[in-house]
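>> Question from a student workshop board

For tomorrow's exercise we were told to take the sequence and the ligand below, predict the bound structure, and bring the output to class. My setup keeps failing. Could a helper post the expected result so I can at least see what it should look like? The ligand is adenosine-5'-diphosphate.
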Amino acid sequence: MGTVELDGVGKSFGEVEVLRDIRLDIAEGEFCVLVGPSGCGKSTLLRLIAGLEEVSAGRIRIAGRDVTALESYDRGLSMVFQSYALYPHMSVRENIAFALETARLPRAEVARKVAEAARMLRLEPLLDRRPSDLSGGQRQRVAIGRSIVREPAAFLFDEPLSNLDASLRAETRIELAALHRKLGTTMIYVTHDQVEAMTLADRIVVLNAGRIEQVGPPADLYERPATEFVATFLGAPS
Ligand code: ADP
Ligand code: MG
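>> Workshop helper replied:
Here is what the output should look like for this input. Compare the format with yours to find the bug.
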């Protein structure tokens, strides 16, 4: 079960309130895309869900379990950043397997999971290479592979394609959509790219200045923007 429920979530840094009363229920298997202008709180919201930052208000439930007070590692999520953060001295195989280090699995089980992730992401020919020998797109796939093996309840992506050039971004976007279909895992995905949002999302959440402006399927937001802000932001006819 991979539901993610945000119940009145708020966050302040000192005096500055950056997120306010965020209420959102993300369904099992949903591809939920967060959009909004720079500084509106997208990354902070992901970090709160991931447990990399503490909420100032509200509760977070994952798979029906209240995780608000849990450490990041115990939330059973996986976060993929725009910077790949791979270990340069390890091979692709070792980078992916390292994500399972703390799970204390038998070696054969680790090898099986790594092989399965490599197959799914077409990384098999690259398993013995170092990250420095890979392209940006390949490194991003390794980072995703490292997440997959942990079989998270949900994946969190913070602008994962923003470092890629346009053609690679399009290619990787299509791969991500295919991966989501294969895995069926809940995904929460931050982007400032309209095309990514429109093509990947089951639902788009539009954030503005720390609050939710509108939530809905891409076509609904495009055809029936609730506010001027949403219309302008999505570039929809108003
Ligand atoms: P986005 O990802 O939508 O661009 P962020 O979530 O990164 O926005 O930031 C939202 C706001 O919170 C910004 O004004 C940012 O400066 C502020 N902020 C983010 N992290 C911190 C922090 N650790 N300390 C203080 N302010 C922060
Ligand atoms: Mg951000």
